[in-house]
Amino acid sequence: xxxxxxxxxxxxxxxxxxxxxxxxxxxxxxxxxxxxxxxxxxxxxxxxxxxxxxxxxxxxxxxxxxxxxxxxxxxxxxxxxxxxxxxxxxxxxxxxxxxxxxxxxxxxxxxxxxxxxxxxxxxxxxxxxxxxxxxxxxxxxxxxxxxxxxxxxxxxxxxxxxxxxxxxxxx
Length: 171
Known about the structure:
The chain is α+β, with helices and mostly antiparallel strands. Helices cover 16% and strands 50% of the residues. The chain has a 10-stranded antiparallel barrel with strand order 1-2-3-4-5-6-7-8-9-10. Strand 4 and strand 5 form a beta hairpin. The longest helix is centred in the first third of the chain and has 20 residues. It starts with a helix and ends with a strand.
């Protein structure tokens, strides 16, 4: 039996597969208007805490554009991180709190281009009990391309409070 045609076919097939794999582009995120708004925040922002302390927030695209990392330095608190990502037609966040827990929140399904994203608590890791202080909500209001309002909702021992921060994009 002559194996030359079989070898030639195998070599051709492997070459075709290799060429196809090398020509593929990096994956791109599916369309999600809410997540696109979050991505538009990339850059540095500043504001003041309700008590007057300076507030510095930066947003950067990470993971090939599939996530947005928020770094937050507020007053004398330790740095906190919040990671945003698309989750189908929702936007999800994991907040790495300076209190050591990690609340996970998400929006309701989004069908249009919103001006406000409202995140509600789903679950948390490293949370001793629901009475332990943790974030249970986050609102982002996109006033315009250079102004953002954050509403952080905190729950501790059954009491809920909200802090509102007004941020301006730094030039």
